[in-house]
Amino acid sequence: MALTLLTKIVAAALLLTASQFHFWSKLSSGSVFAPEFPRSIVILFNWASGSILFLALMQLLLDAGLLAIRAAAGDAPIAPDALRYAMAGAASLLGAIGVVNAVRVPPLKDVDLHMQDLPSQYEGYTILQLTDLHISRLFPATWTRKVVERANALDVDLIVVTGDVIDGSLAMRRMDVAPLAELKARDGTYMSPGNHEYFLGYREWMKHFSEMGMRILANAHAVLDRGGARIMLAGVTDRSAPATGQPRPDLAAALAGGPGGVPIILLDHQPAAARHAAARGVAVQLSGHTHGGMMPGLDRLVARGNAGFVSGSYDVDGMTLYVNNGTGIWPGFALRLRRPSELTRLTLRRAP
Question: Where are the beta strands (DSSP E) in the chain?
Fold first, then answer.
């Protein structure tokens, strides 16, 4: 079926508009990290740009197949229009599924964390990890409130937030983050910063989160006590901090002055330095940042930028590393296929 010239012009204009999502985002707010459009428009942009990505990949595979046939047989058939329309339909469907998976309130995921020398008082101790919420126009106050309600219903011992809580300035996001003040756990809520906090007003946000009841662990630690048994909870700044004039991650400073001989749980937004943490005697590291790689294939590229760590549990030189897929996702690339978001309840178990 031949398309008219007008149809082709309109389609090309729409494709060009969708492909420049990040440019429009920067115009809307001054930052590609905070698209300031209505939520429906952000969802539409993500669907359209995702569909373009999937269609481009399909087109590359088709062209590679036709070239292989030509090389082998000296000639190749012309792909029928019906096949190309089917590819466009499939790409659009994949884009829609990816966005729906990305924007939902995440389901509960239960994970056992095995620790050497875990005091018996902490056997079965529960930690809720929230990370990469990316509270924004895509994840507004209504979404945040549902996450908090689900979190509080779990009645955990401790809540940890491992960075990238927001996308936007405090002026933009004040109301959207407000429900986080209602997070409740017996031993409180602790947070380490992620890279997006540094891009979008680090000092303001850390002060605000502290006022909301979160204890900030930025190259610092806290000691938890249960029945006389202690665990050290430490947190470091993000690797992007020096680029904004803030202190670089310093695990030695985070552990300085802490009690010796107690298990250490480290909050580090990015998982890449896990081997360094293991060498310093950390028992468990909790990270995020990777969004689980978003989808098969892309996860391998994400792993390359994160020392091979992208999703789930790893044994790193005797230390347990858990890389969380994320509670939310960056609104500039909100697609998930087979790499679901998660509300993660971690239960401490003594390693055999």
Answer: 108-115, 126-130, 158-162, 189-192, 214-216, 220-226, 229-235, 264-267, 284-287, 312-316, 319-323, 343-350
